[in-house]
Amino acid sequence: MSEPDRPAAPPAGNEPAVRIRLDLAYDGTEFSGWAAQPGLRTVEGELRRGLGTILRTEPPRLVVGGRTDAGVHARGSVVHTDVDAAAWESLPGRSDRAPAQAALSRLAGVLPPDIVVRRATVVSTDFDARFSALRRRYSYRLCDRPALADPLRRRDTVIVPRPLDCEAMNTAADMLCGLHDFAAFCRPREGATTIRTLEGFSWQRPTEGVLEGTVVADAFCHSMVRALVGAVVAIGQGRQEPGWAAAVLAARRRDPAVMVMPAHGLCLEEIIYPPTHELGARATQARAVRELP
Amino acid sequence: MSEPDRPAAPPAGNEPAVRIRLDLAYDGTEFSGWAAQPGLRTVEGELRRGLGTILRTEPPRLVVGGRTDAGVHARGSVVHTDVDAAAWESLPGRSDRAPAQAALSRLAGVLPPDIVVRRATVVSTDFDARFSALRRRYSYRLCDRPALADPLRRRDTVIVPRPLDCEAMNTAADMLCGLHDFAAFCRPREGATTIRTLEGFSWQRPTEGVLEGTVVADAFCHSMVRALVGAVVAIGQGRQEPGWAAAVLAARRRDPAVMVMPAHGLCLEEIIYPPTHELGARATQARAVRELP
Q1: Do A147 and B267 touch (CB under 8 A)?
Q2: Which of A6, A211, A262, B97 is the most exposed place for a label (fewest CB within 10 A)?
Q3: Cβ neighbours of residue A15 under 8 Å, at least 6 residues apart?
Q4: How many domains does chain A have?
Q5: Is A69 a known active-site residue?
Q6: Is B148 within 8 Å of A75 when comparing Cβ atoms?
């Protein structure tokens, strides 16, 4: 979920490279998060391995638009990767398909069932999955009537014991929107800003006993969505007044009364990018450190 | 899914008994179906064991309104069971809760996470979970755009490789409705009728790439829903004309061209019962053998 300041992956060696954008979905339940870690099953690790298999190259480096923690899901994650051009062009073999089509069906054959690559696109090197992104949209799924819990959704739904006041949660969520220092809701990291623009935060009831939150921001710092949800859940439960979340925000320091909600209710739904001709300018802007006016 | 002709469970021994209705949901993925079988993990087996644990009695016998095969899910299954009245009354311990409330929260504590008992109700012995039922409603979930498959729904969604024609499927499904001999879509069983009233069968697209079927009948014989879905999917794929399913029905014998669809797309959504004062009459009627007029 955080976006640490590591550089974009360089083009692969001295061979001509082609930049590929992959749109993907995964069930985070059995992954130790996005980022590759030795000895652990991660989405990045599985995807790199799958790409290496279909391209018959070393697993290529990936840049992702939204890193997710262990247990967090995605329906709209985006990565870019620079792959060997000759390996890419030879993907369709003797078929008349485009390499991107061939990549998609071959990846489906080698990836585990909890990762689906939904689209593969050749993009210009102006496109950077992380720095070109304008905003990210997450969802958070709660069940507040345990007796109505759907066992088929237990992997992506967090159960809370008593009914939540959706209206109070929306009032509180709305007060958090805008350009703010979200230090109160972020795990602090040396030298990194916690200033973000929360562009939208709202709750609705799609069915009885279920509450779905939507959170949109230009970027999120680590554990930010889960802490924002925890703050408004305390209000929905009547443990805090609707104004409390905004007061916590204004204090700009972590409040132990804010619960960081479990990972499995969270899903990265979408990463939004500008039109192609604005990509270069956007990446330069996103690399600049955010400041409050 | 079938309802074999076994008798309703008798009241427990000579002790005074109370009849309990339980409404339940389960993720069928890791069960060998509903019906208890030695050495296999089944919904009935787990639920009986859970009831025995909270009541501190032998696991009581259960009568279910809709038996499901291995891998089939439920959101609205219903069982009845006759339990020892003294054990039931002592459930709340020293609390001031009703036994049904206490049963619900204790069951939540002892059942595995893939079974949720949603409601526990004391009912009259006129209520029979199987024979009082007026109709059953099942859903079947398909994804016909594999690249859009949601890995979080892979346990309850069957992927078909090419786009389906929803309109043609609805035309075909509609032609199957009514009182018919469904022998063409049933696994034959000695001495059992295959005459049923298919009250509704329709398809809709809740989101891009997803098709959800709804099937309602007074009762279903074994594998009937999955065979009905297989017949209309062949039409949706353009492999058969829309009139083909009705022709298969009229032939009244199993057609090997009808594919019995995979279990995991199927979910028992609801069992519908008459108002309390009509329960006795309904059970008598349901026990009678159906005949075509």
Answers
A1: no
A2: A6
A3: A84, A85, A86
A4: 2
A5: yes
A6: no
Residues A92 and A155 in one domain: no
> pLDDT-derived band of residue A7, with 50, 70 and 90 as boundaries?
very low
Residues of chain B contacting residue A117, judged by C-beta atoms under 8 Å apart: 147
B265 to chain A: closest CA residue: A152
Q: What chain B residue is nearest to A105 in terms of C-alpha separation?
A: B147
Chain A residue at shortest CA distance from B114: A151
Whether A8 shows a pLDDT value over 60: the answer reads: no
- The verdict on B94 and B75 lying in the same domain is yes
Question: Are residue B173 and residue B60 in the same domain, yes or no?
Answer: no
Distance from CA of A293 to the nearest CA of B (A): 41
- Would residue B287 count as lying in a domain? no
Of the residues A69, A82, A128, A156, only one is catalytic, namely A69
pLDDT digits (tens, 9 = 90+) for B139-172: 999 999 988 899 999 999 999 999 999 999 999 9
CB atoms within 10 A of CB A161: 9
Using the predicted structure, report yes or no on whether residue B2 has a pLDDT greater than 70.
no
Give this prediction's pTM. Answer: 0.87
ipTM: 0.83
Please tell me whether residues B198 and B110 are part of one structural domain.
no
Cβ-Cβ contacts under 8 Å, A146 against chain B: 108, 116
Per-residue pLDDT tens for A181-216? Answer: 999 999 877 888 899 999 999 999 999 999 999 999
Helices B224-236, B244-251: crossing angle, 10 deg rounding: 140
Asked if residue A76 has pLDDT above 70, the reply is: yes
Band the pLDDT of A281: cuts 50, 70, 90: confident
Residue B75 touches partner A, C-beta closer than 8 Å: yes
